[in-house]
Design a protein that fits this description.
Elements lengths: L7 E4 L4 H4 L1 E7 L12 E6 L2 E6 L15 H10 L4 E10 L9 E3 L2 E5 L24 H13 L4 E2 L3 E5 L7 H9 L4 E3 L2 H10 L3 E11 L12 H25 L19
Parallel strand pairs: 1-4, 1-5, 5-11, 6-8, 7-9, 9-10
Antiparallel strand pairs: 2-3, 3-4, 5-10, 6-11
């Protein structure tokens, strides 16, 4: 186990380096699951020791289905992290959820295939509950921080996670919309549930970049350049919300996450 060096972990893009306070130290972390996506950056932010890891690598070289999710989560926990803030880009599946809005996810639907999605391959059978996959304490904090900055926010939302790297067909997107799901993404699974398996608190801050496949609103099919344009426009909002969350972070974890394994094992 690596020496305790951080309390809070952040997955995301390069924006972290802009709001870190003082020196940033980068370290390489070894895990039983291979190397994580990149070196981990350690810095002080709003009085907290923070570990930052770009989930796609700093040059965005890892597509969603090749991200080493287990290594990433294990690396942060080995540094002492107990809480993870995980912003990501999503497409909207509902007309009222518009590009530029934030969604604080409370549920996900897994539509991926073949991803290494558990730490518990035996010999002890372990069945971690995923009924409420996101930390309620961090979700409330994210909602308050987003509202405080006047950013349109949806306080709940179901994110359907597709395998990628391709985007949806219109038929798939129409199906997801008809099912009542709210947003679509390629990285929330297994990242969220792996955090739960390690008894970490985890929150997803979903930034809506487009209407998926142009089905639920008059729009062309999603293009990468359109997604990046909205991401650039809203990067400042993401940083404001994360900084506000860190400023308001309670000292104790008053949520079910630390007890995730309490009734999960058949021993």
């Amino acid at each position: 186990m690596t020496q305790h060096q951080a309390d809070i972990g952040i997955f995301g893009g390069s924006g972290f380096y802009e709001f870190a306070e003082g020196d940033i130290r980068e370290i390489k972390v070894e895990t039983p699951y291979g190397p994580p996506s990149d070196a981990v950056a350690l810095a002080a932010v709003a009085g907290h020791r923070v570990a930052f890891l770009p989930r796609h690598g700093r040059t965005h070289s890892l597509p969603p289905h090749r991200i080493p999710y287990r290594a990433n989560l294990w690396a942060l926990r080995s540094l002492g992290v107990t809480r993870i803030l995980a912003p990501c880009a999503v497409g909207s599946l509902q007309a009222h959820i518009r590009p530029g809005h934030f969604v604080i996810s409370d549920q996900f639907v897994d539509r991926t295939a073949g991803r290494a999605d558990t730490f518990y391959d035996g010999p002890i059978a372990t069945h971690v509950s995923s009924a409420e996959p996101y930390c309620p304490q961090l979700r409330a904090l994210a909602i308050d921080a987003t509202k405080a900055h006047g950013i349109p926010v949806h306080e709940t939302g179901t994110c359907v996670v597709i395998q990628g790297p391709r985007f949806s067909t219109k038929a798939e997107s129409r199906w997801f919309t008809q099912m009542g799901w709210d947003a679509i993404n390629m990285t929330q699974y297994p990242e969220a549930i792996l955090a739960r398996e390690l008894a970490l608190c985890y929150v997803n801050i979903a930034l809506v970049t487009d209407y998926d496949a142009g089905v639920v609103a008059p729009a062309d099919a999603v293009q990468v350049q359109d997604v990046l344009a909205v991401l650039r426009q809203n990067n400042e909002n993401v940083k404001k919300v994360i900084h506000a969350m860190l400023e308001r972070m309670p000292p104790t974890r008053d949520c079910p996450c630390p007890d995730a394994l309490k009734y999960a094992r058949l021993e």
